[in-house]
Amino acid sequence: MAFDSLSEKLQNVFKNLRRKGRLTEEDVKAALKEVKLALLEADVNFKVVKNFVKSVQERAVGSDVMNGLNPGQMVIKIVNEEMVKLMGSETTEIALKPGIAITVIMMAGLQGAGKTTTTAKIAGKLKQKGKKPLLAACDVYRPAAIAQLQTNGEKQGVEVFSMGDSHKPVNIAKAAVEHASKNGFNVVILDTAGRLHIDEEMMDELIEIKEQVDVSQTILVVDSMTGQDAVNVASTFEEKIGIDGVVLTKLDGDTRGGAALSIRAVTGKPILYIGMGEKLSDLEQFYPDRMASRILG
Ligand code: GDP
């Protein structure tokens, strides 16, 4: 499971805190120094770590906490609360239009991040909610992408709209929305092209789709195993095209957890879902409080 090493380190710090009946300011500062190191080793963004430790310290040192009955426990509680806050506090859902109005969701991300898989996973979730989603194959550059989306759509029992690979993505997107409105679909999920690196052409293509199709949610898929790179990718997408939320994939294989802890604080955008495996059912809603509990043990 993710975060194993971070969890273990934090639990050791907490064990020492609990052991002490009274805490001095020095004890708290020493413990927080270890928390800081553990977070940095987990590849959490440096600024995020700095602010996090500062917030915990301000709440713990010199306050009633130190003179309370169970100071160690109180410090641990503050760490927990600040960690939940760091990840956005509330669970954020994809905003869907009511009834038959069509919500267009544009999926974006670098190649290999898990975008095509996540697109099908999300379609399954929306279907469970009683929505009627249509998947649109707008990734015309990666040869296997369309076939992969079709296979996954079939597994999910969700129709895939495709025009092959000789049309412009924006035109496929437009045609997909038209097809949806004629056939009673109320969500269209656009699987757009991923590139190996962020480039202008990729961004321009996404901007063009956003401008010409009534996209109401732009969701970025990033690979948590790439750590701070994932955070930088998210910042760039937010800056260039504007995103509404992030799906963090491959958390099942991420032993460090830095992206999960940094992305909200750095980009201001919520994590909507986490990918926990390759199977199409391996997508979980993101709960900041549950995630903090997972990390803190
Ligand atoms: P795309 O290029 O962004 O469309 O990426 P794909 O959807 O093709 O996924 C790339 C690889 O990552 C595939 O082998 C997926 O099965 C795998 N993958 C996607 N999401 C997850 C996840 O949450 N956990 C794991 N372990 N693998 C994932």
UniProtKB/TrEMBL annotation:
Function comment: Involved in targeting and insertion of nascent membrane proteins into the cytoplasmic membrane. Binds to the hydrophobic signal sequence of the ribosome-nascent chain (RNC) as it emerges from the ribosomes. The SRP-RNC complex is then targeted to the cytoplasmic membrane where it interacts with the SRP receptor FtsY.
Keywords: Cytoplasm, GTP-binding, Hydrolase, Nucleotide-binding, Ribonucleoprotein, RNA-binding, Signal recognition particle
EC number of this enzyme: 3.6.5.4
Name of the protein: Signal recognition particle protein
Binding site for GTP: 109-116, 191-195, 249-252
Lineage summary: Bacteria, Bacillati, Bacillota, Clostridia, Lachnospirales
Domain SRP54-type proteins GTP-binding stretches: 270-283
Subunit composition and interactions: Part of the signal recognition particle protein translocation system, which is composed of SRP and FtsY.
Cell compartments where the protein resides: Cytoplasm
Residues of the full protein shown: 1 to 297 of 454
UniProt note: domains: Composed of three domains: the N-terminal N domain, which is responsible for interactions with the ribosome, the central G domain, which binds GTP, and the C-terminal M domain, which binds the RNA and the signal sequence of the RNC.
Catalysed reactions, semicolon-separated: GTP + H2O = GDP + phosphate + H(+)
Primary location: cytoplasm
Family: Belongs to the GTP-binding SRP family. SRP54 subfamily.
Top-tier EC class: hydrolase
